């Protein structure tokens, strides 16, 4: 009955899903909050453009007021001050239009530049998320591979202990061989505990990089990944990658925005032209008295319209405009320095990845040859051990050397793949 219950439980439990690197990157780009925040910023930029364009349109409003006045007040019928209680109703519609203000047109251009900037910032956020995912993904793969190597070593040494104990019983080997092997087993078990913890921490870091909260995934390598990267032959390889990078493009747009801000500050020297139109009417009556004027007649008789046109010429504003212009110019200079910093950082990052890729590729080729030699050495040593020509401790060292060479080869291959994926992000 217990066995049947266990089988049913296994069938109902969801299978652990496995993702390769590309699936991780696709998920992170679609779901990471940093990228979603950048998307919201782009939407806000669209609203800023609409708001800037709206300043070219007139504004209009309408209103109505209903008032009572008691005591001394102005009689609206004869415009004389009298002691009376009155009701006064007013209706109005008015419109204001800034017919010309060069600042409004410049703000539209600035809003469009800002949208380009935040669009590149979104791409930059995607790149940063991808870079973090790639690094944590390979850190997890390396930690997992090391744990597998240790598990293989422990499994092999336990078999070796059993085999050596039998040979000690029949007198083929000294009992000290068992002590030597068990001593090394304890060391490996201690390393296994640390490696298991490192693997778990690496997986937590990877899940965090993905912004994935549930530990229901396992991450595997894609065997189809290529270890060859072409493009280094181009002498302008690094420069081209840098100039295509969204961080570089964003700072270039930021410089344009600061230069446009200088023009906006200078617009404070220019005159502005304003127009307005208003229409109003009112109804007035003395409380407690009969009046022959009905509401519609007063409303028609008291109608009033007004049109105005005004030119505002700045003459002196306490040097505020001049200071704003100078501050805007300093912001341009400061942003150009920021561009130099971004450029230097990008060149350093790309050159570092390129150098690490070439070194890792060269190291991988050397380790492949070393791995074959270690494998042959292990096979020969295994034959000697079985024939009694090698003691257990020496065979243990040879076997571990071969497994270590295997791990080093995996680590080197992962390093080549990691640098390849990092360069793809910069492309």
Question: How does this model look, in words?
Answer:
This protein is α+β, with helices and mostly antiparallel strands and 427 residues long. The protein folds into 2 domains: 15-55 and 101-270 and 317-426, Outer membrane efflux proteins (OEP); 66-100 and 274-313. 67% of the residues lie in helices and 15% in strands. It contains 10 helices and 8 strands. The strands form 3 sheets. It has a 4-stranded antiparallel beta sheet, with helices on one face. A two-stranded parallel sheet has the order 1-6. The protein has a two-stranded antiparallel sheet with strand order 3-4. Helix 3 (33-54) packs antiparallel against helix 4, helix 6 (237-244) crosses helix 9 (320-386) and helix 9 runs antiparallel to helix 10 (392-426). The protein is elongated, with a radius of gyration of 40 Å. The model is unreliable at 1-14 (pLDDT under 50).
């Amino acid at each position: 009955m217990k066995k049947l219950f266990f089988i049913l439980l296994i069938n109902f439990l969801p299978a652990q899903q496995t993702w390769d690197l590309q699936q991780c990157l696709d998920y992170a780009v679609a779901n990471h909050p940093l990228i979603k925040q950048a998307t919201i910023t782009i939407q806000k930029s669209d609203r800023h453009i609409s708001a800037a364009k709206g300043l070219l349109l007139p504004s209009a409003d309408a209103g109505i007021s209903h008032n009572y006045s008691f005591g001394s007040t102005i009689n609206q019928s004869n415009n004389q001050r009298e002691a009376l209680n009155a009701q006064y109703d007013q209706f109005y519609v008015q419109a204001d239009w800034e017919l010309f203000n060069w600042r409004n047109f410049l703000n539209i251009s600035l809003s469009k530049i800002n949208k380009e900037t935040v669009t590149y910032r979104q791409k930059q956020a995607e790149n940063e998320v991808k870079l973090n995912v790639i690094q944590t993904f390979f850190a997890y793969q390396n930690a997992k591979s090391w744990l597998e190597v240790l598990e293989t070593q422990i499994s092999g040494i336990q078999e070796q202990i059993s085999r050596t104990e039998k040979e000690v019983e029949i007198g083929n080997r000294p009992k000290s061989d068992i002590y030597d092997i068990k001593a090394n087993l304890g060391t490996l078990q201690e390393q296994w505990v640390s490696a298991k913890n490192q693997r778990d921490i690496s997986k937590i870091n990877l899940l965090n990089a993905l912004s994935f909260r549930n530990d229901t995934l396992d991450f595997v390598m894609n065997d189809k990944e290529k270890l060859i990267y072409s493009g280094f032959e181009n002498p302008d390889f690094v420069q081209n990658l840098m100039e295509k990078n969204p961080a570089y493009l964003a700072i270039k747009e930021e410089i344009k925005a600061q230069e446009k801000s200088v023009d906006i500050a200078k617009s404070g020297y220019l005159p502005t032209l304003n127009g307005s139109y208003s229409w109003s009417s009112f109804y007035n009556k003395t409380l407690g008295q009969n009046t022959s004027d009905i509401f519609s007649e007063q409303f028609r008789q008291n109608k009033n319209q007004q049109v105005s046109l005004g030119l505002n010429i700045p003459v002196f504003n306490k040097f505020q405009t001049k200071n704003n212009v100078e501050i805007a110019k300093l912001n341009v200079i400061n942003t150009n320095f920021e561009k130099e910093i971004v450029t230097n950082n990008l060149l350093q990052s790309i050159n570092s990845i390129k150098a690490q890729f070439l070194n890792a590729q060269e190291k991988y080729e050397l380790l492949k040859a070393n791995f074959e030699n270690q494998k042959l050495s292990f096979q020969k040593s295994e034959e000697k051990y079985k024939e009694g020509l090698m003691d257990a401790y020496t065979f243990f060292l040879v076997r571990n050397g071969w497994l270590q060479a295997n791990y080093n080869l995996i680590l080197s291959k992962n390093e080549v793949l990691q640098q390849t994926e990092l360069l793809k992000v910069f492309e």
